[in-house]
């Protein structure tokens, strides 16, 4: 789906002007219809027969988990996947052009959330091994804390188990040797500890609880490229750069800078959902929103380091906002000068060395110089 989406965007670029407007709507509709047909073909081949058994396994695994907010949310996702599966098969049997957008949305829903069903189904086939006793955990936790203080605790990866614990794999380095250990908790907050020691990462993966599906940054909003709205008209930085290079008057450069620093229709959304860069949002505002989303992600990790890094990114975003306002004011001032480039800035023609013709004759030889003796009377 991701590859198909990229190919479709490349094809749609051919029917847009330099500012992102669709100038040939019928061709654009045909490109999207082709995308949906190819996605339907792929779904029939890869998922039509396996989707229902996968959902049954995932639901069975979900029934074994302790009740929690996230288990209820996963149940809702499984039910929505089942409904989408039914509608996709119906559309595959009776394709209708007017349903193209709805069918693509359901296919995209599986592309986004089908992995949740796969994660849950995988939990059904795994029984975790033994963890440390209290005394073992205390001893290894002290060793791990000492190694972290020395800077010799190298983190490998982390995930969440079905019981809500955050599990982190790490290399514990002691006396120039490393051991694979598993920890629980936030390593930058009190209360974390070691729950197991393993010969290698594979053994750890077989012994520890399997990861459950990770969360998304915006539970109530889009979480992947497939659910983002289609992009509206937009300038690329390269286009703005070219506009400035080609400019002859201050007003043209002022317009480019005003667009680059334009925050769009409001600095953000009142509902807390991400800004999707509709018409009128300049590159500086886009970068500020991008950093704001990254800050939100860091905070959402709900770890000490996550909150610290999120605060740093929040500060950077505010600085970018200040810079954007400065650029906007400078652009206004530049436009008010109504100045043009002076005429002495004449473009220089390219320096091209003349190439000889294909048929050339050697230059004539210079006349022979003769000397005459001088006669004196």
Helix and strand string, N-terminal first? Answer: HHHHHHEEEEHHHHH
Determine the number of helices (DSSP H or I, runs of at least 4 residues).
11
**Helical proportion?**
40-55%
How much strand content do the residues show?
5-15%
Judged by helices, strands and strand pairing, the structural class is alpha+beta
Instruction: Outline the low-pLDDT stretches.
Output: 266-279, 369-377
Query: What's the total count of β strands?
Result: 4
Terminal Cα span: 108 Å
Backbone CA Rg: 33 Å
The average pLDDT score comes to 83
Largest sheet: 4 strands, antiparallel
Instruction: Estimate the global geometry from the Cα principal axes.
Output: extended
The side-by-side strand order for the widest beta sheet comes to: 1-2-3-4
Describe the structure in your own words.
By secondary structure, the chain is α+β, with helices and mostly antiparallel strands. 51% of the residues lie in helices and 8% in strands. It has eleven helices and four strands; from the N terminus they run ααααααββββααααα. Strands 1-2-3-4 form a four-stranded antiparallel sheet, with helices on both faces. Helix 9 (250-260) packs antiparallel against helix 11 (304-336). The chain is extended, with a radius of gyration of 33 Å. It starts with a helix and ends in a 41-residue tail after the last helix. Residues 266-279 and 369-377 have low confidence and may be disordered.
């Amino acid at each position: 789906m991701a590859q198909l989406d990229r190919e479709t965007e490349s094809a749609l670029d051919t029917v847009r002007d330099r500012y992102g407007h669709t100038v040939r709507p019928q061709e654009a509709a045909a490109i999207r219809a082709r995308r949906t047909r190819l996605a339907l073909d792929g779904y029939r081949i890869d998922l039509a027969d396996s989707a229902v058994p996968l959902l049954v396994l995932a639901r069975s695994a979900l029934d074994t988990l302790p009740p929690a907010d996230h288990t209820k949310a996963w149940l809702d996702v499984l039910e929505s996947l089942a409904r989408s599966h039914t509608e996709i098969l119906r559309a595959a049997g009776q394709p209708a052009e007017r349903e193209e957008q709805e069918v693509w949305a359901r296919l995209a829903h599986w592309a986004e959330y089908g992995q949740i069903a796969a994660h849950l189904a995988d939990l059904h086939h795994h029984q975790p091994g033994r963890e440390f006793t209290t005394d073992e955990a205390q001893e290894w936790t002290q060793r791990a804390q000492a190694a972290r203080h020395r800077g010799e605790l190298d983190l490998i990866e982390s995930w969440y188990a079905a019981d809500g614990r955050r599990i982190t794999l790490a290399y514990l380095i002691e006396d120039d040797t490393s051991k694979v250990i598993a920890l629980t908790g936030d390593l930058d907050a009190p209360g974390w500890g070691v729950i197991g020691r393993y010969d290698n990462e594979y053994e750890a993966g077989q012994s520890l609880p399997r990861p459950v599906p990770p969360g998304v940054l915006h539970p109530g909003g889009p979480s992947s490229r497939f659910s983002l709205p289609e992009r509206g008209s937009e300038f690329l930085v390269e286009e703005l750069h070219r506009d400035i290079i080609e400019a002859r008057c201050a007003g043209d450069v002022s317009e480019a800078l005003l667009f680059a620093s334009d925050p769009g229709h409001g600095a953000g959304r009142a509902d807390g959902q991400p800004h999707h860069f509709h018409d009128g949002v300049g590159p500086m505002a886009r970068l500020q929103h991008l950093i704001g989303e990254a800050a939100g992600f860091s905070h959402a990790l709900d770890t000490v380091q996550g909150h610290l890094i999120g605060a740093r990114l929040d500060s950077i975003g505010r600085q970018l906002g200040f810079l954007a306002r400065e650029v906007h004011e400078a652009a206004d001032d530049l436009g008010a000068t109504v100045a043009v480039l002076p005429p002495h800035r004449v473009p220089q023609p390219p320096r091209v060395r003349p190439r000889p013709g294909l048929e050339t004759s050697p230059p004539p030889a210079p006349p022979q110089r003769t000397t005459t003796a001088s006669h004196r009377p």
